Amino acid sequence: MKKTVYILLLFCISLTASAQTESKFPFSISKLEELYAFHTKSPQAPVFAEYILIDIDEDGKQEVAMKTKDGKIKAVFSDSETDLNLIAWTDKQLHDIYLFKGTVCSAGNAGTDNTSGAYKVYNMLEGSAPVKCVEVEEKYDPATHTMVAQYIVDGEIADEKIGEKLIKKIHSTSIEVPAWKPVTDEMR
Q1: What is the 3 state secondary structure string of the chain?
Q2: What is d(CA 49, CA 183) in angstroms, rounded to the nearest whole number?
Q3: Handedness of CA 70, 106, 188, 185 (dihedral sign)
Q4: Nearest to 29 by CA among 72, 92, 91, 77
Q5: Would you say the C-alpha torsion 143, 148, 151, 152 has a positive or negative sign?
Q6: Residue 184 to residue 116: CA distance in whole angstroms
Q7: Within the chain, what is the greatest distance between any pair of CA atoms?
Q8: pLDDT at 116
Q9: Please, which residues have CB within 8 angstroms of residue 158's CB and are 6 or more apart in sequence?
Q10: pLDDT, tens digit, 9 for 90 and up, residues 58-83
Q11: pLDDT of 106-147, one tens digit each?
Q12: Would you say 114 and 135 are in contact if contact means Cβ atoms under 8 Å apart?
């Protein structure tokens, strides 16, 4: 009998501990969808189906990444002390979002014909806010038959070596992504 009580007690303690460590979703999904629509000037926001809470910049505050039913990350939000912020999103040009340690990348096509190259926006985060933006536009140069990259760091055209070094540093980091969780009706 004592053994059974002891096992039940240990089981209850482990359930309590796991419940305390699991993060509660801190926002209304409809609020996130409204913020997305407002920020992207989209007439209709995507319907978010899954989420993760993840501390991208390791500052102790979790960012929120949202996926739609197609399995693609469509938005990343951060919560500063004063406001909720959309820090990465997809739109007609930027189709994908990638997560790195300390950085969120929105990526898509350069140009209008979807074949002329790639465009990426890397937002480096500190304190759950973007502190540096690196844009990379790669286009095909028919004269040399090569891809040519242009780097823009915080709105200024950057030397190719500086841009390449920043991107190499970002890509050398990885982040452990937790399991995605479904958005429930209660979260709306």
Answers
A1: CHHHHHHHHHHHHHHHHHHHHCCCCCCCHHHHHHHHHHHHCCCCCCCEEEEEEECCCCCCCCEEEEEECCCCEEEEEEECCCCEEEEEECCCCEEEEEEECCEEEEEEECCCCCCCEEEEEEEEEECCEEEEEEEEEEEEECCCCEEEEEEEECCEEECHHHHHHHHHHHHCCCCCCCCCEECCHHHC
A2: 5
A3: positive
A4: 77
A5: positive
A6: 40
A7: 84
A8: 72
A9: 134, 151, 152, 166
A10: 999 999 999 999 999 999 999 876 67
A11: 999 876 555 578 999 999 999 999 999 999 999 988 888 888
A12: no
Q: What tokens were used for 187?
A: 């979260």
* Distant-in-sequence contacts of 109-115, Cβ < 8 A, 24+ apart: 110/137, 110/138, 110/139, 111/139
* Residue among 39, 16, 19, 32 at smallest CA distance from 64: 32
Tokens found for residue 80: 């500063």
Nearest to 149 by CA among 160, 158, 157: 160
